[in-house]
């Protein structure tokens, strides 16, 4: 990608706003990142029930960040994201690295209130499908729309169009940016399953363009089966800006 003016070309789907950039980094940049991630001191890993993570940039509190400098191997990526997207008013100062085994995922959730509402996720390793679902507080609106109560026709259509479940296929080396309604009105999550279906993914064409499946999978009718098998770990870098930075713990 040659600069922020090109970013609009990478918008996918109709929900505002999801941006998918295939091959944001090269395979050798991916290998170098993985080397740095797996070369970090083992204490840097925090094990959760369904994944491991490394926290870089400092400790995020509800009200802000107790900062720590990002290492140069991460700033080379975060600066590129800032420059090319033009979507962050300040430098990205926080990176969460998640590692998922093939059968691990992340529950549908919304990111915390301390972050500026633009998220950039760099994917490494195994592909995966991320699902965006309407926030429970919008369920009522959708249920009303479905039973055609109380919401006008145009609103109904718009409501459904905006808030159906949306799948995004995340290939290695790609960058996903999400903001606006995708950030404020949706939960995002990844199923904890070794097989992910990408049928109907909003970026299917862009994501599969340069990708050859090792063994095309066939369904019972002999047609192509749009699933990916997660045979290796997936590692993602969730890059965000915490605008409120506290230099001094006692000023919290
Ligand atoms: O691993 C991913 O792609 C998603 C991570 C995520 O949603 C988060 O860290 O908040
Ligand atoms: Fe998240």
UniProtKB/TrEMBL annotation:
GO annotations of cellular component type: nucleus
Main location: nucleus
A Pfam family the protein falls into: 2OG-FeII_Oxy_2
PROSITE patterns: FE2OG_OXY
SUPFAM superfamilies recorded: Clavaminate synthase-like (SSF51197)
Family note: Belongs to the alkB family.
Keyword terms, alphabetized: Dioxygenase, Iron, Metal-binding, Nucleus, Oxidoreductase
Domain annotation Fe2OG dioxygenase: ranges: 91-243
Keyword Metal-binding: yes
Single GO molecular function: dioxygenase activity
Compartments, record wording: Nucleus
Name of the featured protein: Alpha-ketoglutarate-dependent dioxygenase alkB-like 6
């Amino acid at each position: 990608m040659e600069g922020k003016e090109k970013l609009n070309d990478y918008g996918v789907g109709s929900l505002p706003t999801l941006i998918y950039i295939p091959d944001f980094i090269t395979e050798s940049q991916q290998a170098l990142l993985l080397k740095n991630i797996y070369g970090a001191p083992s204490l840097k890993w925090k094990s959760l029930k369904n994944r491991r993570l490394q926290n870089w940039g400092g400790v995020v509190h509800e009200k802000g960040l107790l900062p720590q400098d990002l290492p140069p191997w991460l700033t080379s990526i975060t600066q590129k994201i800032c420059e090319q997207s033009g979507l962050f008013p300040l430098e990205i100062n926080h990176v969460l690295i998640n590692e998922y085994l093939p059968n691990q995922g992340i529950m549908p959730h919304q990111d915390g209130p301390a972050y500026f509402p633009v998220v950039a996720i760099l994917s490494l390793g195994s592909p995966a499908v991320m699902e965006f679902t309407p926030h429970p507080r919008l369920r009522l609106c959708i249920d009303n729309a479905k039973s055609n109560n109380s919401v006008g026709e145009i609103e109904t259509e718009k409501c459904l169009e905006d808030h159906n479940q949306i799948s995004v296929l995340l290939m290695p080396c790609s960058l996903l940016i999400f903001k606006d309604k995708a950030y404020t009105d949706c939960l995002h999550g990844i199923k904890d399953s070794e097989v992910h279906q990408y049928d109907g993914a909003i970026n299917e064409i862009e994501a599969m363009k340069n990708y050859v499946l090792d063994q095309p999978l066939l369904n019972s009718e002999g047609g192509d089966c749009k699933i990916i098998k997660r045979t290796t770990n997936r590692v993602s870098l969730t890059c965000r800006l915490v605008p409120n930075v506290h230099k001094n713990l006692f000023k919290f």
